[in-house]
Amino acid sequence: MARAEGAAVSATRAGFVALAGRPNVGKSTIVNAIVGQKVAIVSDKPQTTRRAIRGVATRDDVQLVLTDLPGVQKPLDTLTERMQRRVERELAETDVALMVLNAEQGVGPGDRFIARALQNAPCPVVVAVNKVDRLDRAHIIVALQAVSELGVGDEIFPVSARKGTGIDALADHLFSIVPESPFLFDAADHSDLSPYVHLAELIREQVLRRTFQEVPHAVEVVVDEVDTAREGLTIVHAHAWVETESQKGILVGAGGRMIRQIGTGARKELQRELGTKVHLDLIVRVRRGWRGDDALLDRLGFDA
Ligand SMILES: Nc1nc2c(ncn2[C@@H]2O[C@H](COP(=O)(O)OP(=O)(O)OP(=O)(O)O)[C@@H](O)[C@H]2O)c(=O)[nH]1
């Protein structure tokens, strides 16, 4: 990471930790467990994370900036090529790489692909074997053995992000290896997502919870306006973009039932987040091929 040249020797340490792992292994849940509050959205659908969402964890004089990377994967369309470029760039610029695997599923081809990508990472590589709550002791040992045979990583930590098991040991290690540096974020910050993007992610989380097959990944949510003019009430105007009329039909649902359920779930999350009553104005629109549309991707805030 580039740091201010000539800065006085600081007593603080800080660094970027980039998470890499197959979709759904629990990267977002690990970020939340380390940061200690909800920053990254969590769902049981693969590829929930299209943007690098950072959590910031500060302990005394050490700070971790966690980058929740999308799964390393082969480029399929413009969006995934962009994701891939971003993964490579983040790895080149990070202080630590954290590879996450699913203990229950064991080591698969996707993990080997990522392990190979990380073998040349120019930084320490730490491995977390997640979801050990799903296994008994003997099977945890088998899983750890298989992971150590991957030959990647200086340290391997069995964890359950959901239960919090092993997270302290993992976090302690991460805190111990970041380099001397001034803090990269204010110690009170937990995430650098813009407020609008964060609200859009909370809405998208409700879409992911309620839709299946290709629909969840075809949906992008954009918050257009947040109106706080009224005391105790926030009005959020948002669009859910889909790629086809049939996806729109599914998202709206018979008689608008699906979009109403999504809206109700999202409103509760937004109210919890904003601490006011929320009126959510959520409109579904079709934009054909938005994944391949550079101009729209730019407008939505994806990096090239
Ligand atoms: N049993 C169990 N489930 C977990 C654990 N950690 C995460 N999960 C679940 O696994 C699913 C995926 O978790 P995420 O944190 O969204 O996974 P991710 O790797 O960030 O997913 P993508 O962003 O899609 O790549 C969710 O249903 C989580 O609740 C764990 O330690 N134990």
UniProtKB/TrEMBL annotation:
Signal peptide: none annotated. It is a peripheral membrane protein. SUPFAM superfamilies: P-loop containing nucleoside triphosphate hydrolases, Prokaryotic type KH domain (KH-domain type II). InterPro entries: G_ERA_dom, GTP-bd, GTPase_Era-like, KH_dom-like_a/b, KH_dom_type_2, KH_sf_prok-type, P-loop_NTPase, Small_GTP-bd. It comes from the Bacteria. One of its GO terms (molecular function) is GTPase activity. Residues 130-133 are annotated as: G4. It holds the Pfam family MMR_HSR1. Residues 13-180 form the Era-type G domain. Residues 159-161 are annotated as: G5. GO terms for cellular component: cytosol; plasma membrane. The keyword RNA-binding applies. Its main location: cytoplasm. GTP binds at G21, R22, P23, N24, V25, G26, K27, S28, N130, K131, V132, D133. GO terms for biological process: ribosomal small subunit assembly. It is found in: Cytoplasm; Cell membrane. Keywords: Cell membrane, Cytoplasm, GTP-binding, Membrane, Nucleotide-binding, Ribosome biogenesis, RNA-binding, rRNA-binding. NCBIfam families: era, PRK00089.1, small_GTP. Monomer. This is GTPase Era. It comes from Baekduia soli. The gene is era.
